[in-house]
Amino acid sequence: MRGYDKHAFEPFAVTVDLAVLTLRAGALHVLLVERGQEPYAGRWALPGGFLLPEESAETAARRELAEETGLADVTGLHLEQLRTYSEPGRDPRMRVVSVAFAALLPDPPQNSVRGDTHPAALEPHGGGDAADARWVPYDAAQGLAFDHDRILADARDRVGAKLEYTCLATAFCPAEFTLGELQQVYETVWGTALDRPNFRRKVLATTGFVEPVQGAARLTGGRGKPAALYRAGPATTLHPPLLRTPREGRPA
Amino acid sequence: MRGYDKHAFEPFAVTVDLAVLTLRAGALHVLLVERGQEPYAGRWALPGGFLLPEESAETAARRELAEETGLADVTGLHLEQLRTYSEPGRDPRMRVVSVAFAALLPDPPQNSVRGDTHPAALEPHGGGDAADARWVPYDAAQGLAFDHDRILADARDRVGAKLEYTCLATAFCPAEFTLGELQQVYETVWGTALDRPNFRRKVLATTGFVEPVQGAARLTGGRGKPAALYRAGPATTLHPPLLRTPREGRPA
DNA sequence: CCCTTTAATAGTCTCTACGACTATAAAGAG
DNA sequence: CTCTTTATAGTCGTAGAGACTATTAAAGGG
User: Fold this and answer.
1) In what helix (H) or strand (E) does residue B191 lie, and over which residues does it extend?
2) Is the CB of B205 under 7 A from strand D?
C-alpha cells in the first residue's frame, strides 16, 4: 500500500477458487471441474476464474458460482471468503494469487449442473479448459490440481467450525426443512452422530435459529411420524454455541 | 484458475496490510504510519507494502512487520490472515488487491518502534512515503487512509471472537505473565469486566492453556499479594470455550 | 509498628445446560 | 392388527458458570 507510485511493483494474476459444498444422499459433496488442458490436464479442480477488471473477488466468486452451477439465484446462497493463497509456485506457469471462497447450497436438482447432463455442452468461460463439471463426494475429492486439496480441506474445516457458533447449517437446507435434516447437516459435516432429542432441545432453545412454519407444518414422505417444518430464523450466531464435543455421539 | 493461458487477464497490484495490535496501559493499541504523499498524504494508515516477486503474502507480512516494528524476532509473533480486500476503487490510483493480516504482540519497549524515537530516521522502504510510525489507541484510530478503518475493525472483531475459543490471548502477553495480565487481555479487547476468581478457575481448568512457571514463580512490583507466573501451554484451542456472554461483568 | 489498602487466591452456593436415557405419538409395511 | 420407523416429550444426574464471601500476602501511610 505504500510507495507504489515511485517504485516498480510486480503485477500478479488474481483468481478466485470456489469450494462449492452441498449435502447429497447423506454425504458432503463438492463441485469439481475437470481440467481440459495443461497443466493438470484431466485432473479435477475447484471451479474458479480470473477477476474481471471492475469486480471484487466476492463479485467474481458469485459470477463463477452462477456459471458453474447453472443456478439462477445465487444471490441468496451463502458465500464466504476463506483465505488467500499466494505461495510462489502454486501455479507452475505464472504467479497467481487466489482468493478462496466456500459456497454452501442445498442439494440441488440433479440437472442443475450442466456437466451432469451435457458434459460437452458446458459453456466454456474463462478459456474453456473445463471438460466436465460434477458433484463429487468429499472423501473422493483427492489429488486435485494445484493446491486445491488444501483449499478444499480448509473449506471443510472452516465450515465445520462455523457450524458450532453460527447458524450456517441452514445454508445447506432448503427454505423449509425438518429438524432431522438440520441434524443431518451437523452429523455429515462433523462426521459424528448426535442425540436427536438433545439436538432438538438445543436448537429450539436457541432463539432465532429456526422458527416453525405455520399452516401445512408437517412433512410426510418417508416412514415414521411426519416431522414439523422449520425455516431459518433471524439469528446469525448461536448463543450459546452448539459445541462439537470430542466424546459426543452414539453408535447409530 | 482456468483458461488464463488462452485469454488475457488483468494484472493486479497485490499488497499486504497489517493490523499490528498490542496492549499498552490497559488499552488496545494499533501501529499506524503517517502517509507522506498523495493520496491521503498526512493521513494515518495501516503499515503494509507490496508483495515481492518471490514471496507469499505471509512472508511479505512478516517482512513488513519486522521493518515497521523494528523487532528482531518476528518469528514467534502471532500473525493471522484476516481476509482479502479487492473492491475496485479502494485505491484511487489503480487496482490494488490487499491481503490483510492481524499481528499480535506483547507491549513492546518504548523504543522498539523507530518512529517513537526518530520519526525522521524511519528507514524508507517500499518508496518511503511513511513520515512517521506510532502506536495509537484503537479508539483514536479513526479516519484512516483507504479502507483501513474497515480492516482495523475487522481485525478487532476477529481477535475478539478468537479469544473465546482459542489460546490467542497469550499472544498479547510476554513469555511469562500473571493471570491478572491474561485477564486484562480479555477485558481490554472485549471491553467488559470479568470476575477474577471465576476467570482464574476457568483458565486453570482448561488443560494446556497456561502452565505454572516453577522456581521464581512470583512477581511483585505493585501493591498487593504477588501473583504467580504462568507461561503459554501447548493447547491452541479452548475446550470448552471461554464465552463472552453479553451480560457478563461486574461494575469495577 | 500497626493499620489500611490492594491484589491474589481459595472456597461456597445456585442455577443452567447438556449428555444419557426412557416414554409416547404418528405414520407406513406386511 | 402388529411391527417398524421416525418424531417428539420428558426425566435425571452432573459439569460448568455466575455471583458472592473469605483468606492471604504484599505495599503504603500514619
Assistant:
1) none
2) yes
CB contact under 8 A, B53 and A10: yes
For residue range A86-116, list pLDDT tens digits in order: 999 999 999 999 999 999 999 866 555 554 4
How many Å apart are CA B178 and CA B195, to the nearest integer? 15
What is the bridge-based pairing of β-strands A27-35 and B218-219?
unpaired
- Strand boundaries in A7-164, DSSP class E: 11-24, 27-35, 44-45, 48-50, 78-85, 96-104, 130-137
What's the rounded mean pLDDT across residues B109-126?
Answer: 43
| Cβ neighbours of A81 in B, within 8 Å | 83-84
Helices and strands, counts by H and E, chain A: 5, 11
On whether any CB of chain A is under 8 Å from the CB of B115, the answer is no
Hey, is the C-beta of B80 within 8 angstroms of any chain A C-beta?
no
**For the segment B18-40, what is each residue's pLDDT rounded down to a tens digit?**
999 999 989 999 999 999 888 89
Q: Which of A12, A158, A35, A10 is nearest to A98 (CA)?
A: A12
Distance between CA atoms of residues A84 and B193, nearest Å: 36
Residue type present at position A51: L
Which of A14, A88, A127 is opposite residue B3, by nearest beta carbon? A127
* In contact, A169 and A73? CB cutoff 8 Å: no
Return the number of other C-beta atoms located less than 10 Å from residue A89's C-beta.
Answer: 10
Question: What pLDDT, on a 0 to 100 scale, did the predictor assign at position B170?
Answer: 97
Say how far apart CA A27 and CA B156 lie, in whole Å.
36
Q: pLDDT-derived band of residue B220, with 50, 70 and 90 as boundaries?
A: low
Question: Which uninterrupted H or E stretch holds B45?
Answer: strand B44-45
Q: Provide the percentage of residues in chain A whose pLDDT is more than 70.
A: 82
- The Cα–Cα gap between B78 and B90 comes to 27
Give residue for cell 478444499: A152
